Model the fold of this input.
Amino acid sequence: MIRPSVIALSLTAVLVACGGTNRDPDDGTSTGTDGGTPDSGRPDGGSGDGGVSGAISGYVQLNDFSTGSAVQRQAFANFAAGSFDAVLNAGIGCKAVPPGDDPTPPAPSPSPGAITIKAGANVIGTLMPVGDGSYQTLSTGTSPGLAWAAGDTLNVVAAAGLAPGFTMSVTAPAHLMNVTPDVKTSSPTVSKKSDLNVTWSAGTASYVYVSLTQVSELGTGPGVLCAGPDNGNIRVPASLLASLSPGAQTYFGVVRVASKTITPNNNHLSLQAGAGAIGTVTLVP
Done:
């Protein structure tokens, strides 16, 4: 059974990184992409309005993961005052994640209001803020209507609250095909002595990330995190695999992400939709 917290942690780490780039102070036009097509900052349906003074950074995250034969979908959001720290340089590259490292943003700040999620014209869920400004997570286990397909237009509409309201949309990415190593049906063996070459059929999404995260009774970590263009290949250096322990439970994920970012009034707001496979690998010396 794949722990939802591991899935969330892996994707959050990359979203904080990749959502932290393209910080052009503008008037609400997008600096992101909607499934891989650069928009060069032109108006594209993303907008922001209202809110408190001072910069707010935040994202809405929509996950579509296959774990063996099961599919897990999640939706959650996080907002904080100031800027998120980038985990990777411009979202491209690899890094080691130390034990216990938490790549999530700082403590929640005043948030927008309710965030409505749509697939096309259909409302599939609503993220509601709680008292501390954080949001309740939606998942298929508790919200059966949280469903979409590759190619659907995913829209989020956040009502203005103590932070700005906004609207954004992305095209839901397709799941990766012909992935190696394949964790859908088995737990492949990965040698720490050699670079790990992860391949898939290339696409046009904003980026793809690869994560290896070790979990024990004491918590999460260490791990390795890589992100790059959707060109069919990411190489995980053996020098980073060396930080992982053979025999420890190791979760492995390969996820394609479509992203959209807007920066109205110096706020930094992102919508991220991920589709991929999460499983386990067996590390050997």
Notes: Residues 1-53, 85-90 have pLDDT under 50 and may be disordered. The chain has one domain: 4-284. Residues 150 and 285 are 38 Å apart (CA to CA). The first strand starts at residue 47 and ends at 49.
